[in-house]
Amino acid sequence: MYKKIEINRKNIFIGVAWPYVNGDIHIGHMAGYLLPADIIARYYRADNYKVLMVSGSDCFGTPITIEADKRDLPPQTIADIYHKQDERLFKEVLGLTYDIYTRTDTENHIKTVQDVFMGLLDRGYIFIDTTKQFYSPQEKKFLPDRYVEGECKNCGYDGARADQCENCGKLLEQDELINPKSKLTEQEVILKDTEHYFLDWSLLQPQINDYVAGSGSHWKNWVFQETQGWLRKGLKPRAITRDINWGVPLPTDRIPSDKLIDNHQEKRLYVWFDAVIGYLSASKLWAQENSENWENFWYNQDSKHYYFMGKDNLIFHTILWPGQLIGYDPKLHLPDMPSVNMFYNLEGQKFSKSKNITIGIEELVNQFGNDAVRFYTTLTMPETKDASFKFDDFIEKNNQLLVGNLGNYIHRILSIASTEDIGKIAAYPLSSEVSKAIDTSFEKARSHIQNCEFRNYLDDLLNLSDFGNKFFSYQEVWKLKKTDREQYCSALKQLYSMILALGYLMVPVLPETSTRLAQMLEIETFDKWPQVNEEINRIEDQLKQVKQPIKPTPLFRKIDPKETLK
Questions:
Q1: Measured by CB atoms within 10 angstroms of the end CB, which terminus of the chain is less buried, N or C?
Q2: Following DSSP, what letter does each residue of 48-60 receive, concatenated?
């Protein structure tokens, strides 16, 4: 049963997880956060909302320095290489509709992060303490968390980082890592005292509890339950600086002298603290570059905020980022819908370039088309459990559903009626049965997509085309064409109306196909949806604009089961 909801908010903010610029983007990233964010952005723009979709490259932190060490290049060079590569992939290959795609090493981002730091410091949420950090006696320097690996005390995974286990997702304190070693030398490391800034989460927890209690009922149940589990354990202070030379520097000229830590010149703000602030800094940069007002999205309760990420980033978006916002400026808008997906694997295995468990997104799109890849990725999206891209299943679902259901329905109708006078057909009444099917499809589609239920949204689309196929077969339209002209034209009115409805519903998931359909019919695009309860009127008007004769061409390509990825 779908949830019928009403969103009367004018401004939709969409924050997309910031990928590290230290490696190739794979289809797991696409299913996890890239595609769902683009689907909802396209939907809200089509449904006449003001949308701001932001993200960028996460340029700081040890993932980049590790890659730089491997390639014997400066971290800045690594960031530049992958930022350019990712930006081209997102915009030119995948056609993701970012309003701004920036990076975390800009002056704008650095200043915004420093502003947030100072706000938290001034309000008493940050304090100084001595902690133990891993130190390499052989290299004679402190090592960032990602330079240290060992055994996770929770799940026993041998390869856990010093700060978090990628296998079980648990955050780790440094003394909880078993048999820690340097990733660079494979030598044992020791814990040594060093002074850092800490964010006191215990002071923020009561407000975070209230936020989660108020907003969590709208989240996926597993996301809400996992967040509640973290909160029940109690939030503890956590260091927000590290001994590293690649990251956002401390605003030492703004920090009172009695609050400066030792060796502050060698400290940088920890990447988990700075990266999420990119949602705010990117909004400011977008406003500056486009003469817009970012405050309309961030200080206006007439807004709704969506965030998209994989499950390894859950705690950062349901607890830590809201806490940073509350501590810095309680008037800022908090996340309404952190849409977290589970992991998306390849043929049941985790992606691993070193083990050749990978598949190129660009190669898939170039060979099979962007919409075919978007369709299957949405169909198998890991919304509530881990899922996989399976090449044989991709071919099967493409041929059965995309070609056999949706494409077949549209093509058979346009073919049988290619020379008909659509203007005359448009004058026939729309049956109550078909009118209800269209109205219900739009109603369900709006509800499912607003609740980030993208697989259900795709079902709404396919169910309508399936209904149209059954209607065509039951009416035996090919016979009516020869035996009953009136019934034939009436049937075409119903079938054409459903095609136009499908044109609108395809916009978020199958944007290129929606555009091709409009071009084939020589009508205005489907990029702006009709208002609620005006869908039938818009379709009636648009049907009168269809030009003829129509020269239909297949919207989708059937894939030979023997075809392999080139």
A1: N
A2: T-EEEEEEEEB--
CB neighbour list of residue 6: distance below 8 Å, 6 or more residues apart: none
Q: Which residues partner with 526 through β-bridges?
A: none
Token pair for 443: 């109603």
Query: How far is Cα 333 from Cα 327, in angstroms, rounded to an integer?
Result: 12
> Could you give the CA distance from residue 513 to residue 536 in angstroms, rounded to a whole number?
22
Distance separating alpha carbons of residues 46 and 507, to the nearest angstrom: 8
Q: What is the DSSP letter of 548?
A: S
Phi, psi of 529 (to 5 degrees): -70, 150
**Rg (alpha carbons) of the chain, rounded to whole number:** 27
Would you list the DSSP string of 389-420?
E-HHHHHHHIIIIIIIIIIHHHHHHHHHTTTS
Sheet holding 50-57, edge to edge: 100-103, 50-57, 11-16, 303-310, 337-341
Q: Bridge-partner residues for 346, per DSSP?
A: 349, 389
pLDDT in tens, 318-348: 999 999 999 999 999 999 999 999 999 999 9
Q: What is the dihedral of CA 511, 513, 518, 521, to 10 degrees?
A: -170
CA atoms within 13 A on the CB side of 475: 24
Q: Measured between alpha carbons, how far is 379 from 455 in angstroms, rounded to an integer?
A: 5
| CA within 13 Å, CB half, 50 | 11
The CATH class, in words, for 125-269 is mainly beta
Report the run of H or E that residue 79 belongs to, with start and end: helix 75-88
Q: Where are the alpha helices (DSSP H) in 509-557?
A: 511-521, 535-543
Which residues are CB-neighbours of 267 under 8 A, at least 6 positions away? 196, 197, 241, 242, 243, 244, 250, 261
Instruction: Work out the number of other CB atoms within 10 angstroms of the CB of residue 216.
Output: 18
Between residues 354 and 428, which one has the greater pLDDT? 428
Residue extents of the structural domains in the chain = 11-113+273-346, 125-269, 374-543
Q: By CB neighbour count within 10 A (0-12 exposed, 13-18 middle, 19+ buried), where does 209 fall? A: middle
Class of domain 374-543: mainly alpha
Local structure of residue 531 (DSSP, 8 states) = P
Distance CA 472, CA 489 (A): 12
49-66 tens-digit pLDDT: 999 999 999 999 888 988
Q: Is the pTM of this model over 0.85?
A: yes
User: Do residues 526 and 506 make contact, with C-beta atoms less than 8 angstroms apart?
Assistant: yes
Q: How far apart are CA 250 and CA 227, in angstroms?
A: 30
Give residue for tokens 């490391």: 189
